[in-house]
Amino acid sequence: MRTTHTYDVTVQWTGNLGSGTDGYRSYSRDHEVRADGKAVIAASSDPAFRGDPARWNSEELLVASVAQCHMLWYLHFCAAGGVVVTDYRDHAHGVMTMDETGGGGRFTEVVLRPEVTVAEASTAEKARALHGDVPAVCFIARSVNFPVTHEPVIRVQQG
């Protein structure tokens, strides 16, 4: 039996500076991402495209989604496999390459760099290996058309 899940968000442009989009420089790229019962995400475009650097942009949110999905599946595999993780931090890196005309581009890769701390030294190698199980099940990584790789660092919790 096939199960579906749905996700509804509202994206509201808040960047009308008074004259709408009557010129490329006459409007802000600011917008808000909303979902019922959740905090609003203040967003904009990448600063390279006239966006506000203090706000999240869609490219950052895409990289974050890939990293979050990997982390959540990884933690699940660790819990099920007897690996006690006490800390997890990922310094994820995405690359978007513009086409020759500069009018469009696409993500060409995301590299996940999780730093994982485990409670027991005897589980460190299993902790490393479990990263390799995630790509087969991570919803987000399975949905994108660019490679997602990972370069984990495993540490053992100190005393």
Q: How would you describe this structure to a colleague?
A:
This protein is of the alpha/beta class. It has 2 domains: 45 residues, no CATH class; 99 residues, 2-Layer Sandwich (GMP Synthetase, Chain A, domain 3), CATH 3.30.300.20. It has 2 helices and 10 strands. It has a 4-stranded mixed β-sheet. A 3-stranded mixed β-sheet has the order 5-8-10, with helices on one face. A 3-stranded mixed β-sheet has the order 6-7-9, with helices on one face. It starts with 9 loop residues before the first strand and ends with a strand.
Question: Features of this protein?
Answer:
159 residues, alpha/beta, GMP Synthetase, Chain A, domain 3, four-stranded mixed sheet, three-stranded mixed sheet, 19% helix, elongated
Provide a quick synopsis of the model.
The protein contains 2 helices and 10 strands, in the order E-E-E-E-H-E-E-E-E-H-E-E. The chain has 159 residues and is of the alpha/beta class.
Mean pLDDT: 94
Count of helical regions: 2
Would you identify the CATH architecture of the largest domain? 2-Layer Sandwich
> How does the helix and strand content classify structurally?
alpha/beta
Q: Strand sequence of the main sheet, in spatial order?
A: 1-2-3-4
Give the arrangement of secondary structure elements.
Layout: E1 10-13, E2 31-34, E3 41-44, E4 56-57, H1 58-81, E5 85-90, E6 93-98, E7 105-112, E8 114-118, H2 124-130, E9 148-150, E10 153-156
Parallel strand pairs: 3-4, 7-9, 8-10
Antiparallel strand pairs: 1-2, 2-3, 5-8, 6-7
